[in-house]
Amino acid sequence: MKELLENDAATLREKIRSRSVSAEEVCRAFLDRIEAVEERIHAFCTLQPEKAIETARAIDAKISRGETVGPLAGVPVAVKDVICTRDLRTTCSSRILENFVPTFDATVVRKLREADAVIVGKTNMDEFAMGSSTENSAFHSTRNPWDLDRVPGGSSGGSAAILAAGGIPIALGTDTGGSIRQPAAFCGIVGLKPTYGRVSRYGQIAFASSLDQIGPMGRTVTDCALLLNQIAGPDPKDSTCSTDPAGDYLERLQEPVRGLRVGVPEEYFPEGLDPEIKATILTALEHLEKMGVIQERISLPHTDYAVPAYYVIAPAEASSNLARYDGVRYGARRESTGANLVQMYRATRTAGFGKEVKCRIMLGTYVLSAGYYDAYYLKAQKVRTRIRIDFDEAFEKVDFILSPTTPTTAFLIGEKLESPLEMYLSYIFTATSNLAGLPSLSLPGGLSSDGLPIGIQLIGKPFEEETLLKTAFGLEQALRFRDTRPLLPIDH
Ligand code: GLN
Question: Which numbered atom of ligand 1 lies nearest the CA of 178?
Answer without folding.
Answer: 8
